[in-house]
Amino acid sequence: MSPKHVFSTKLLQWFSQYGRHDLPWQHKRNLYRVWVSEIMLQQTQVATVIPYFERFMQRFPSSRALADASQDEVLHLWTGLGYYARGRNLHKAAQIIRDDYADHFPENFEAVLELPGIGRSTAGAILAQALGQRHVIIDGNVKRVLTRLYAIEGWPGKKDIENQLWELAESLTPMDNLTSYTQAIMDLGATVCSRKSNCPACPVTDLCMAYKREQVASFPTPKPRKTLPVKETQMLILKNDKGEVLLQQRPQTGIWGGLWSLPEYNHDNKEELTNWCQQQLGLMVKEYKIQPVLRHTFSHFHLDITPIVSQVKGPANHVMEAANRVWYNTHQPESLGLPAPVLKILNSHSGA
Known about the structure:
Nucleoside Triphosphate Pyrophosphohydrolase; three-stranded antiparallel sheet; Endonuclease III, domain 1; 2 domains
């Protein structure tokens, strides 16, 4: 038996006893449920995804239900999960499946790969998990397993290292039992060969070069660290006489694309705030209060948010002329997609 065949055999034996078999998308398994789970699991841990997935399936039990929903409703259920482009792409893909594939998720790899938000590994994982097709997968967990198994030096995000990992993953992937194998290798990386490795529980230590060299903690090579830049913004919490807060919908592209957020006032001169609100929003505001800074960290920068609270004078009808603005009742919230820090700010002021 070749070492590569030994790897898959040992891995599948381990998976049958110790793998994860009760994840919600593994039951009533179909292409739609697996697809949604794989998108949610991109850069997000299983424990975080499960409640979002269950709520999502309850509201959108089929691809057609998702396609027919509004983007606001989709992003509302995505609020807090992060990486919102995933939600927008999921919604767009569902509409393509409705319009071009008569509500049937495509079963051809190239067709799946063309859908928004789906790359090579995700397409392979969907078809392997749902249909048992033989496709190679490489997510973060699999990269960790492979770099340790073969003691591969260099950050896995570099193209030449990534290409090497694809070749190794291809050579290890068996010809059958793909549903179990793809889940097994992801589970191994997530539960045993994790950042805090548990080598005594690993079924393939006898094959692992990093383990034999006592260098498991050295792999994978970390990404070269850069100091994250800090950006600043000021968000206005403008309340009308009903206690509702003004929200604006952000552009579809860029940070928090398509989500509803607080108006941003990015001027150093606070004395001009009153004039700015009148000119830009058609609102007269009373005295304002500056709140403590809230830091939100993205993958590439920190965002320091300074909330500024103010009461709107008189009727606030003029602002409603803009289609991308709403008055938001924090006590009876609408189904709108909100960035996590904005939701945090709104919740902290819902009783004020």
